[in-house]
Protein 1
Amino acid sequence: MEHRVRTYTTADGVRLHTEIWAPDGPARFVVPISHGSGEHVGRHAWLGEAVAARGGLAFGPDHRGEGLSGGPRGHVDAFETYAADLAFVAAKVREDEDAWTEGLPLLPFGHSMGGLILLVALVDGAFERLLSRPPSGAVVSAPLLGLAMKVPRIKVALARLAARFVPTFAQPAEIPASAISRDPEVVRAYEADTRRSRVVSVGWFVAMEKAIARVQREVAGLALPMLWLVGTGDRIVDPEAIRRTFARLPDPTAHDQRLEVFDGYYHELHNEPAGLREPVRQLVADWLADHAKPTSA
């Protein structure tokens, strides 16, 4: 396995720091990684390494406004922009990586905000536009389909008003580090991570609301194989919102779509204490490898 770092610049001039985990030899499948808010793709090295060990090519950008990428901190105009960035990076990696040959299964993974970004990309056809083909399947972990920490109505109203005039105005994200995991070492590392952005803009908040509404309207049209993960102890994303959205899929069994519920798990299911995280990590990596069936270009 080889770990590489690249920078790609979007059409609107935003630099996207990108990390790649390449297998030894030609890849069998490809996994774009979409990380959450207030983190970066480097926190998902566990998945990149697991994919590469199974013969896959994994990669992902720090989303614009996050990590080492450019753009106003914690800001996006629309989640479709994040989705387009993810597909753009996939297209650039395909150009640069000899391991990525035509017809490889495309199996993206998204966590939290990254899960919402991935769902937007799927309903919006972002991968089809830039790669001329749809994904073969997808994994979404604790997708941001509703907040567990309810925002006061007056604060929501003020954010919507401010977004009309100063959309990049940013405030602290107010996500307690203790809510991400029950592993104190994970929490300490998260708090000390200087690469993380710690703010979100009012424009981001409004864009999030619109993205959730779009996914709720259009998710029933997704027929690709999917694995959804949710922890019942999540204090950041509302587990019931995830269940309700999954329930909108018309025939999950027929389409190889499943919802795995982990009792008591916090937001970062893959970063819970060691004895708890391993089944999650194993499930995700094995599901991706199991769905790595060659397709036509």
Protein 2
Amino acid sequence: MTGRAEGMARAAPDGLVAEMRIERPGFELRMALTVGAGEVVAALGPNGAGKTTLLRTLAGLNPLTAGRITLGRSVLDDPAAEVFVPADRRPVGVVFQDYLLFSHLSARDNVGFGLRARLGLDRRTARDQANGWLDRFGLTGLGDRRPAQLSGGQAQRVALARALAPRPRLVLLDEPLAALDVSTRFEVRAFLRATLADLGAPVLLVTHDPLDAMTVADRLIVLENGRVVQDGRPAEVARRPRTAYVARLVGLNLYAGIASGGSVDLSTGGHLRLADHDARGPVLVAVRPTTVALHTREPHGSPRNVWAGPVTSLEPFGDRVRVTVGSTPSIHADITTAALADLCLGPGTPVWAAIKATDLDVYPAGDHPTGR
């Protein structure tokens, strides 16, 4: 989505605007959220960050402690004004990770149920429209099957069709692809992106999977401990993470420190030489593991940063291996399996990790917590 299109989406009168404070024993979610009509926003975060609380609150299953939720011109929740629209009266379509299809109903009648319950259609009209939605979702000829007779991908499409058929004004997706195998997930992910693009309603996707978020969403928000720690387009979040959690999620090394005179003194100890001598004050430094070179002898040359330490872990993935070096601070390097064999690396092997100053991405830290 372009900057202009994104701005129009956020300003659209049919969008979602929420200022939320939800208190639970030992936990508080406090955040602002705007999702424009036609915009897909993915919420990421570790367990206990507040993602489920956010989704349940928007669905009408948890009331606000304070704040206000509006969908277009409709107020859904406003404790100060004593307004609360219950879940069964909200124009919201929800898809859960375990689908929650009615096991005793056919695929056609599962989709038709939403049309009858939400739009008040008679049974025949609902079944006719349900057939059209099944065709649209690539499920032609499967209308008579019950959920137990469907594959995971087919069941997920039925759940999506049931949620979207009544044309909800807000769509909430709770880990919608989590129960699918890898091949089915790839197929449904692409299908979901295309379907949501045509919907025109604000969409909130809650997920643990960064690939789901990066490929389906226009914008990402990252929750940690009940607060939004990062909000931006997928490419921006992936390139410039602002917390250790986000850095792990996108596979980057991330360090915090104070920049001055062409170097950064890191908060965890050690320092980095920079190519940019104008950087000043609190900064974050992101390092791609693929740019980290490993040596069994200390390398020399400029403009390199060199840290020494033992190999603390080896994690193979595909044709590469992620090597963690217990330097100060620690660092991850991605090398080929051939390089691993040539270097004869194993747990405890002393190595030197070298990073070129030009391979460092340095940006202002702002007020976001981070650290390794």
Protein 3
Amino acid sequence: MQRIAFILLSFLCSAGLAHAQDIMAIDGPGNVYLIDSANGSGTLLGSLGYTGAVGLARDSADDLYAICDHPISGQAIVQVDPLTGAGTLVNSAIPLYTGEVFRGVSFDSSDNLWAEHTTSYIVTVPLASGVAVFGNKPATFDIRSIAWRGGEMYGWDLFKGLVIFDTVGTNWATDVNPGVPGSLDVNAMTASPSGQLFGASDSLYSIDEITGVATLVGSGPYSGITAMEFLGTPPNPVLSVTPLTAGQAATFSVTGATPFGSVIVGYSTAGAGPTSTPFGVVDMSPPINAFPPFAMDATGSGGWSLTIPGGASGLTLYTQGVDTGSGLLTTSLATAIL
């Protein structure tokens, strides 16, 4: 058992923390990636289980929905698991007119799901029915992606670049900057929680909402991104342990951590804290030590076993960990040793 002062633990973790992969992105074949908005790097998360995703949107409850191909209805709304990227069918997605398809989706602040047609009609699509509700046609633009930013909806046109919609009146679209054309390949667009617009296809770009200028953030390994959205606030990884009995083996486990990352669990017998650390307030009192790091699998789960010392009966073990990939603390435990 390795005993490391928690302040040293915090230093080691902060030195090795990865950038936050805060964007989920999907390509045409249905591969789901996590992308770091700070540098554009991405890692494969899993498969949507559907192809032809044309948009990914997150509502106020942090639930993710995509519109993608469906073998029977043509297109469908699926809910996307933020941990695995797997899609679950919600409803068929029915456009206004036969022969049309959806391109680009985004929730507004009231959880109305907006979408764009091949003929550039802007519509809303209730999740309960999947049937498009008529909005209006935004001029003659060729818009492929949309994103709400606060109370305003933006789109990326393949010829005109960034446009902004009049969603209160006609839904008419206006070119943000006629001097910046849409030559850049942006087939997916979203806005960060702070309001920064991003676009992607083979690379990630930040987009200035005033000038319409797109600036390269970084690339791959991914290509052909057709849908993307910022993830909501992730839940804390869950720490659990089997009953603790002096002289016997116990198993600690963690779920909901960063896939293929690692978790370090601190422990104390001095009390439940609170103690401030660089990752937040932990439910342990000094002195705080740590078990060796243990690895997570593709689902963000992992665990390890140890033998409880024979003389520990009657003590309470206070434990809490940190996910070194996200910097999030796990849930905490206070477990009596029998």
Protein 4
Amino acid sequence: MNGLPPLLRLLRPQQWTKNLAAFAGVIFGGRITEPGSILLDLAVALVFTAASSATYVFNDLRDVEYDRQHPVRRLRPLASGEVDPASARRLALVLGAGALVAALLLGKATFLCLVLYLGINAAYSSGLKHVALLDVCCIATGYVLRVLAGIYVLGDMPTAWITLCTFFLALFLGFSKRRGELVTATVAHEDSRPVLLGYGREMLDQLLNNSAIMAVMSYAMFTATSGKSPTLIVTVPIVYYAIMHYLRLVMHEDRGEEPDQILLRDRTIQVSIVLWLVCFVLIFYGHVTLFR
């Protein structure tokens, strides 16, 4: 990412993969063969991409001094001085306003999800990111809102279990990141991420284990009770393996600080996602019945 222009790096394009959560609508709603539905979820993903980048800029504006003390974040465009604060503010306002207008065009439910997302992120940047547990809960809620928006825009209703699965999986990723930061922390590093003082490695290990188990259980309940196809339970081992593999990377190889990089580079995670998607589509659209 270092080769990109400073203004583009300010938007954190490496984080845009998070917005693929909006495609939950077409995947879990059985609409993967409907071009119109795919386009609507793509629009939601783009709206949240613009909104999330606006929140990253806002967060960086508030954290310039903290970031300058961090061995990695000091290279961010604002902290390094490559982008001036006035330009960053204008960019954030344009992206945020544009996202709100586009979301309103996509419907009231999508607009409400985006307003809640922006509100929670504003609260996060303004202080909640310094409160242990609440910081990661804010991040996890952002994932949930992406999923809900991608489902509501299609006129569908989300199931309770897939909503919980999203929440706990996002908690798992968030606590993974905090553990990675704690492992590599120095005195200066802790100053640049004050919330780390509210955690300990043992506590984070427990939170990781709990959220991983809850994510798997919630997904298992979704496959068994959503009314779509009980045969989807054959995909549970894939989800279990992928999450536990990620847990091993975090707890035994200390690779949790950048979850987006694991998702983009770890071949096992990538193969697991593709295998899960292929199995899900074959079972759902092929009307495969193995259980009742």
